[in-house]
Amino acid sequence: MERFFTKTEDDVKIAFNYYRTGHDSVVIICPGWFMTKDSNAFSQLADSLSARFDVISMDFRGHGESDGYFTFTSKEILDLDAVVKYAKKYYRQVYLMGFSLGGAMVLIYGAIKGNVDKIIAVSPPSDFNKIENKMWHPNAWIPTFKKFEPKRWISIRPSLIIHKKIRPVDIVDQIKVPTLFIAGAKDVTVCPWHTEKLYQKAACKKSFELFENGIHAEDIFIGEREKFLNLCMQWLN
Predict the structure, then answer these.
(1) What pLDDT digit, counting tens, does each position of 183-227 carry?
(2) Do residues 44 and 76 lie in contact, with contact meaning Cβ atoms separated by under 8 Å?
(3) What residues contact residue 182 under an 8 Å CB cut-off, 6+ apart?
(4) What would the mean pLDDT of 85-105 be, rounded to a whole number?
(5) Cβ-contact 55, 19 below 8 angstroms
(6) Torsion angle, CA of 133/134/140/145, rounded to 10 degrees?
(7) Distance between CA 219 and CA 139 in Å, rounded?
(8) For position 163, what pLDDT does the model report?
(9) Which secondary structure element, helix H or strand E, spans residue 219, and what is its range?
Protein backbone atom coordinates (compact mmCIF):
# COMPACT_ATOMS: atom_id res chain seq x y z
CA MET A 1 0.00 0.00 0.00
CA GLU A 2 1.20 3.51 -0.87
CA ARG A 3 -0.05 6.92 0.22
CA PHE A 4 -0.92 9.44 -2.47
CA PHE A 5 -2.43 12.92 -2.63
CA THR A 6 -4.40 14.82 -5.23
CA LYS A 7 -5.99 18.27 -5.42
CA THR A 8 -9.64 19.20 -5.94
CA GLU A 9 -10.97 21.95 -8.19
CA ASP A 10 -11.32 24.16 -5.10
CA ASP A 11 -7.69 23.46 -4.12
CA VAL A 12 -8.23 21.03 -1.24
CA LYS A 13 -5.59 18.31 -0.80
CA ILE A 14 -7.18 14.84 -0.72
CA ALA A 15 -5.31 11.81 0.64
CA PHE A 16 -5.79 8.23 -0.45
CA ASN A 17 -4.27 4.82 0.14
CA TYR A 18 -3.39 3.04 -3.09
CA TYR A 19 -3.30 -0.76 -3.28
CA ARG A 20 -1.71 -1.60 -6.63
CA THR A 21 -2.02 -5.32 -7.30
CA GLY A 22 -1.80 -5.41 -11.09
CA HIS A 23 -5.49 -5.42 -12.08
CA ASP A 24 -7.14 -3.42 -14.87
CA SER A 25 -10.03 -2.29 -12.67
CA VAL A 26 -10.06 -0.29 -9.44
CA VAL A 27 -12.48 0.06 -6.53
CA ILE A 28 -12.61 3.48 -4.88
CA ILE A 29 -13.69 3.13 -1.24
CA CYS A 30 -15.51 6.14 0.20
CA PRO A 31 -15.89 6.07 4.01
CA GLY A 32 -18.64 7.97 5.76
CA TRP A 33 -18.67 10.69 8.40
CA PHE A 34 -16.11 10.16 11.18
CA MET A 35 -14.39 7.30 9.34
CA THR A 36 -11.13 7.38 7.39
CA LYS A 37 -9.11 5.32 4.92
CA ASP A 38 -6.89 4.22 7.82
CA SER A 39 -9.73 3.00 10.04
CA ASN A 40 -9.24 -0.69 10.83
CA ALA A 41 -12.47 -1.65 9.06
CA PHE A 42 -11.51 0.11 5.82
CA SER A 43 -7.91 -1.11 5.89
CA GLN A 44 -9.22 -4.67 6.20
CA LEU A 45 -11.80 -4.12 3.47
CA ALA A 46 -9.18 -2.71 1.11
CA ASP A 47 -6.83 -5.62 1.80
CA SER A 48 -9.61 -8.10 1.07
CA LEU A 49 -10.71 -6.44 -2.17
CA SER A 50 -7.13 -6.09 -3.41
CA ALA A 51 -7.06 -9.82 -4.19
CA ARG A 52 -9.42 -9.16 -7.12
CA PHE A 53 -9.06 -5.44 -7.87
CA ASP A 54 -6.70 -2.56 -7.39
CA VAL A 55 -8.08 -0.42 -4.57
CA ILE A 56 -8.07 3.27 -3.69
CA SER A 57 -9.35 4.13 -0.22
CA MET A 58 -9.81 7.87 0.30
CA ASP A 59 -10.19 10.46 3.03
CA PHE A 60 -12.87 13.04 2.31
CA ARG A 61 -12.04 16.63 3.23
CA GLY A 62 -11.94 17.24 6.97
CA HIS A 63 -10.96 13.63 7.64
CA GLY A 64 -7.65 11.88 8.24
CA GLU A 65 -4.83 13.21 6.09
CA SER A 66 -6.99 15.29 3.77
CA ASP A 67 -7.20 19.05 4.18
CA GLY A 68 -10.25 21.25 4.58
CA TYR A 69 -13.49 20.84 6.51
CA PHE A 70 -16.19 18.24 6.01
CA THR A 71 -19.40 19.69 4.54
CA PHE A 72 -21.70 16.65 4.96
CA THR A 73 -22.05 15.97 1.16
CA SER A 74 -22.21 19.62 0.02
CA LYS A 75 -18.72 19.80 -1.51
CA GLU A 76 -17.39 16.26 -1.21
CA ILE A 77 -18.31 15.56 -4.84
CA LEU A 78 -15.18 17.59 -5.67
CA ASP A 79 -13.07 15.24 -3.55
CA LEU A 80 -14.43 12.14 -5.24
CA ASP A 81 -14.14 13.70 -8.67
CA ALA A 82 -10.44 14.38 -8.12
CA VAL A 83 -9.83 10.76 -7.14
CA VAL A 84 -11.92 9.38 -10.02
CA LYS A 85 -10.02 11.54 -12.51
CA TYR A 86 -6.76 10.18 -11.15
CA ALA A 87 -8.01 6.59 -11.42
CA LYS A 88 -9.41 7.04 -14.94
CA LYS A 89 -5.90 7.70 -16.23
CA TYR A 90 -4.81 4.18 -15.33
CA TYR A 91 -7.81 1.84 -15.32
CA ARG A 92 -10.22 0.37 -17.83
CA GLN A 93 -12.99 0.19 -15.23
CA VAL A 94 -13.60 2.34 -12.15
CA TYR A 95 -16.00 1.22 -9.42
CA LEU A 96 -17.30 3.18 -6.44
CA MET A 97 -18.10 1.74 -3.01
CA GLY A 98 -19.48 4.20 -0.45
CA PHE A 99 -20.63 3.86 3.15
CA SER A 100 -23.25 6.00 4.95
CA LEU A 101 -22.61 9.61 3.83
CA GLY A 102 -19.95 8.13 1.56
CA GLY A 103 -22.76 6.00 0.16
CA ALA A 104 -24.83 9.11 -0.44
CA MET A 105 -21.81 10.65 -2.13
CA VAL A 106 -21.27 7.81 -4.61
CA LEU A 107 -24.95 8.00 -5.60
CA ILE A 108 -24.79 11.76 -6.05
CA TYR A 109 -21.60 11.39 -8.05
CA GLY A 110 -23.07 8.64 -10.22
CA ALA A 111 -26.14 10.74 -10.97
CA ILE A 112 -24.30 13.99 -11.74
CA LYS A 113 -20.98 12.83 -13.23
CA GLY A 114 -21.79 9.32 -14.39
CA ASN A 115 -18.24 8.53 -15.50
CA VAL A 116 -17.80 5.29 -13.51
CA ASP A 117 -18.74 1.70 -14.33
CA LYS A 118 -20.51 0.30 -11.24
CA ILE A 119 -21.60 1.55 -7.83
CA ILE A 120 -22.12 -0.03 -4.40
CA ALA A 121 -23.91 2.11 -1.79
CA VAL A 122 -23.95 0.79 1.78
CA SER A 123 -26.42 2.38 4.23
CA PRO A 124 -26.88 5.56 2.18
CA PRO A 125 -29.36 8.16 3.50
CA SER A 126 -32.08 9.21 1.08
CA ASP A 127 -32.14 12.69 2.62
CA PHE A 128 -29.56 14.11 5.06
CA ASN A 129 -32.27 15.91 7.02
CA LYS A 130 -34.12 12.65 7.69
CA ILE A 131 -31.21 10.67 9.13
CA GLU A 132 -32.36 9.12 12.41
CA ASN A 133 -28.93 8.93 14.12
CA LYS A 134 -30.19 7.40 17.38
CA MET A 135 -26.82 7.55 19.11
CA TRP A 136 -28.32 6.49 22.45
CA HIS A 137 -29.35 3.11 21.02
CA PRO A 138 -26.99 0.17 21.74
CA ASN A 139 -26.78 -0.60 17.99
CA ALA A 140 -25.22 2.83 17.55
CA TRP A 141 -23.00 3.49 20.55
CA ILE A 142 -21.65 -0.04 21.10
CA PRO A 143 -20.19 -0.35 17.56
CA THR A 144 -18.85 3.21 17.85
CA PHE A 145 -17.12 2.31 21.14
CA LYS A 146 -15.67 -0.88 19.64
CA LYS A 147 -14.19 1.11 16.75
CA PHE A 148 -12.61 3.75 18.99
CA GLU A 149 -9.41 4.97 17.31
CA PRO A 150 -7.96 8.10 18.98
CA LYS A 151 -5.86 9.13 15.97
CA ARG A 152 -8.93 9.06 13.73
CA TRP A 153 -11.16 10.92 16.18
CA ILE A 154 -8.76 13.85 16.55
CA SER A 155 -8.36 14.13 12.77
CA ILE A 156 -12.03 15.01 12.09
CA ARG A 157 -12.75 18.64 11.16
CA PRO A 158 -16.42 19.39 10.43
CA SER A 159 -17.81 22.59 8.96
CA LEU A 160 -21.25 23.92 9.76
CA ILE A 161 -24.09 21.64 8.62
CA ILE A 162 -26.00 24.54 7.04
CA HIS A 163 -24.48 24.16 3.53
CA LYS A 164 -27.03 23.38 0.84
CA LYS A 165 -27.17 19.67 0.03
CA ILE A 166 -28.46 17.53 -2.81
CA ARG A 167 -30.90 14.87 -1.63
CA PRO A 168 -29.88 11.51 -3.10
CA VAL A 169 -33.54 10.52 -3.45
CA ASP A 170 -34.08 13.43 -5.84
CA ILE A 171 -31.46 12.33 -8.35
CA VAL A 172 -30.90 8.59 -7.88
CA ASP A 173 -33.07 7.94 -10.95
CA GLN A 174 -30.43 9.70 -13.06
CA ILE A 175 -27.83 7.00 -12.40
CA LYS A 176 -27.18 4.96 -15.56
CA VAL A 177 -24.66 2.37 -14.32
CA PRO A 178 -25.43 -0.84 -12.36
CA THR A 179 -25.90 -0.03 -8.67
CA LEU A 180 -26.03 -2.32 -5.65
CA PHE A 181 -27.84 -1.05 -2.56
CA ILE A 182 -26.97 -2.64 0.81
CA ALA A 183 -28.68 -2.01 4.14
CA GLY A 184 -28.67 -3.43 7.66
CA ALA A 185 -32.06 -4.35 9.11
CA LYS A 186 -30.91 -3.30 12.59
CA ASP A 187 -29.41 0.04 11.53
CA VAL A 188 -30.55 2.85 13.85
CA THR A 189 -28.19 5.46 12.41
CA VAL A 190 -29.59 5.44 8.86
CA CYS A 191 -32.64 3.21 9.05
CA PRO A 192 -32.98 0.70 6.18
CA TRP A 193 -36.03 2.40 4.66
CA HIS A 194 -33.64 5.03 3.30
CA THR A 195 -31.73 2.48 1.21
CA GLU A 196 -34.87 0.67 0.10
CA LYS A 197 -36.46 3.95 -1.03
CA LEU A 198 -33.38 4.80 -3.07
CA TYR A 199 -33.38 1.32 -4.61
CA GLN A 200 -37.04 1.58 -5.53
CA LYS A 201 -36.56 4.93 -7.24
CA ALA A 202 -33.38 3.98 -9.12
CA ALA A 203 -33.96 3.35 -12.83
CA CYS A 204 -30.64 1.66 -13.65
CA LYS A 205 -29.77 -2.03 -13.43
CA LYS A 206 -29.96 -2.53 -9.69
CA SER A 207 -30.07 -4.91 -6.74
CA PHE A 208 -30.98 -4.57 -3.08
CA GLU A 209 -29.58 -6.66 -0.23
CA LEU A 210 -30.84 -6.43 3.34
CA PHE A 211 -28.57 -7.98 5.98
CA GLU A 212 -31.02 -9.17 8.63
CA ASN A 213 -28.43 -8.90 11.43
CA GLY A 214 -26.63 -5.92 9.90
CA ILE A 215 -26.18 -2.63 11.70
CA HIS A 216 -24.72 0.43 9.95
CA ALA A 217 -22.34 0.89 7.02
CA GLU A 218 -18.92 -0.71 7.67
CA ASP A 219 -20.40 -2.63 10.62
CA ILE A 220 -22.21 -4.80 8.06
CA PHE A 221 -18.79 -5.77 6.67
CA ILE A 222 -17.38 -6.29 10.17
CA GLY A 223 -20.30 -8.47 11.23
CA GLU A 224 -20.62 -10.66 8.12
CA ARG A 225 -17.35 -10.28 6.30
CA GLU A 226 -17.51 -13.31 3.99
CA LYS A 227 -21.11 -12.71 2.89
CA PHE A 228 -20.45 -9.01 2.35
CA LEU A 229 -17.30 -9.57 0.31
CA ASN A 230 -18.84 -12.31 -1.83
CA LEU A 231 -21.85 -10.11 -2.58
CA CYS A 232 -19.72 -7.12 -3.56
CA MET A 233 -17.23 -9.11 -5.63
CA GLN A 234 -20.02 -10.86 -7.54
CA TRP A 235 -21.60 -7.49 -8.29
CA LEU A 236 -18.36 -5.96 -9.53
CA ASN A 237 -17.26 -8.91 -11.67
Answers:
(1) 999 999 999 999 999 999 999 999 999 999 999 999 999 999 999
(2) no
(3) 120, 121, 122, 123, 195, 208, 209, 211, 214, 220, 228, 231
(4) 98
(5) yes
(6) 90
(7) 10
(8) 85
(9) helix 218-223
